[in-house]
Amino acid sequence: MLEIKNLQKVYGIPGVSAKPALNGVDLSVGQGELVGLFGENGAGKTTLLKCVLGLLGYTGTITLDGEPVTRANIARLSFATCEHSFFPHLTPAGHRDFYREHFPRWREKRFQALMDFFRLPMGKAPGSFSTGQKNQFEVILALSQGADYILMDEPFAGNDVFNREDFYKVLLGILEPTETVVLSTHLLEEVEHFVGRAVLLRGGAVVGDTSVLELEERGMDLMAFVKSAYGYEPDRVSRALDRLTEEGEEETP
Q1: CB–CB of 159/132 below 8 Å?
Q2: What are the pLDDT digits (tens) for 26-55?
Q3: Residue 142 CB: number of other CB atoms within 10 A?
Q4: Which of 40, 43, 161, 253 is deepest in the core (most CB within 10 A)?
């Protein structure tokens, strides 16, 4: 179980130029869950994932099966980030050798199968890949590390819709029952039938947490849930257009 309690993160200097990014986040994720982490830009999604990984300082507690995240258990977490964490000048074959040495649970067959699926060359440095290929390689490493909890932050940016759709299907087919995925993305409609649970952040706080099955029983889709939690105003666009039209008419000589 990954447990997050009263997680607080402030950027800047408290009392001087502080900007709260996370404000009292409480969240528990069990093994085997497929969780979608949603929210507008600046909601705190990336900050939350980086705090879990220990990449940012924070207050509050984050534990794995009751233990703090340290060097002793950090290998149970992997991260696929659109900022990229691979070595740009080391070939995929070199990454494979590096990961084999440092991660005892390295999944060789999964790595090779995913490399073949995405048709990525083993002997070419990933720094020369296209943006989509870089993101694919990042995801491949995260899935092949042997982690129990796989965190993904907008991993499919730069990939066409066909690659993304096929990848969701492949991912569902290869994940084992104990593997957990926490996926931060804006592609709500695409992942609705992939994730089993939706967690919604707004202003650094959890404002919604439900299973997709519960939404179906309520007759709601994921987009409707997000709009409801955010208090979305359906006439927002029409009101803006009416106002702009009125202003244009006033300016006409």
Answers
A1: yes
A2: 999 999 999 999 999 889 999 999 999 999
A3: 20
A4: 43
Widest Cα–Cα separation across the chain: 75
d(CA 104, CA 13): 41
Q: Is the four-CA dihedral 5, 6, 8, 14 of positive or negative sign? A: negative
The order of strands in the sheet holding 180-184 is 77-81, 149-153, 180-184, 34-38, 197-202, 205-211
Q: Got the DSSP string for 105-137?
A: T--HHHHHHHHHHHT--TTS-GGGS-HHHHHHH
- Nearest partner of 7 among 158, 204, 171, judged by Cα: 204
What pTM was estimated for this model as a whole? 0.87
pLDDT of 162: 67
Please choose, from the candidates 181, 153, 151, 216, the residue with its C-alpha nearest in 3D space to the C-alpha of residue 35.
Answer: 181
What digits encode the pLDDT tens for the residues 196-237?
999 999 999 999 999 989 998 999 888 888 888 887 666 666
Both tokens of 44, joined, read 């705190």
